[in-house]
Write a structure and sequence with these properties.
Helix 3 crosses helix 4 (about 95-115). The chain has eight helices and no strands. With about 200 residues, it is mainly alpha-helical. The mean pLDDT is about 80. The protein has helices spanning about 15-25, 25-45, 55-85, 95-115, 120-125, 145-155, 155-180, 190-200.
């Protein structure tokens, strides 16, 4: 357990905090989370907007989605209780960018499932698409993949500079083409072309 209070009131000697810390640190915890992410990937592959709402598969997928969302909420809650949310000195849950991504997925899934029935929540229902980010949560568990993602993100500013240079050259050639070729709708005409077109149409 890290020093200081978690969530402003959970001290270092708090039993709930100690239990959460032991749970999060246990190797089986990460394995279980990876298993849940795998089940989530399978359910996302099986899900389709064309499924009949009353079909057995759709009902099963809905139950799985509810169960996975509850499990992921429990995972986030255990980590927050163990390490704190944001204001702690270090190691807080939201101070890790990967945890922020996890929190976004969990919150979006929760809102889409329990946002309310009988209410026009088109924008809220669109948050269900955020569930597609669940497989990204597995990447943080593999250091190699995580390093590749971090290197890709860190290289985006340089890639932006390259795209800016390419855009300038594309604009130059576009201006050149418009200046010299605008209004020139050239085409092939004549008896030979007409005869070839007739043969092509009639077979």
């Amino acid at each position: 357990v890290r020093r200081g209070r978690a969530l402003g009131f959970l001290t270092e000697t708090n039993r709930v905090r100690h239990a959460s810390a032991r749970l999060v640190a246990h190797p089986t915890f990460e394995s279980a989370v990876l298993g849940l992410i795998g089940i989530s990937c399978v359910s996302l592959v099986l899900d389709s907007p064309l499924l009949y709402p009353g079909s057995a598969l759709k009902l099963w997928l809905n139950r799985v989605d509810y169960g996975l969302t509850v499990c992921f909420i429990g995972e986030s809650a255990a980590k927050i209780v163990a390490h704190g949310l944001l204001c702690e000195a270090r190691g807080a849950y939201l101070k890790d960018p990967w945890n922020v991504a996890d929190a976004v997925v969990v919150v979006a899934s929760s809102i889409s499932l329990w946002g309310g029935d009988g209410v026009d929540l088109t924008a809220v229902r669109a948050l269900r698409a955020v569930r597609a980010m669940r497989p990204l949560r597995a990447m943080r568990r593999f250091p190699g993949i995580r390093h590749i993602i971090e290197a890709t993100i860190s290289s985006l500013p340089d890639v932006g500079n390259v795209l800016a240079v390419c855009g300038i050259f594309f604009m130059i050639f576009a201006i050149f083409a418009v200046g010299f070729l605008k209004g020139l709708m050239r085409g092939c005409t004549g008896p030979a072309i007409d005869d070839w077109t007739t043969r092509a149409v009639t077979g």
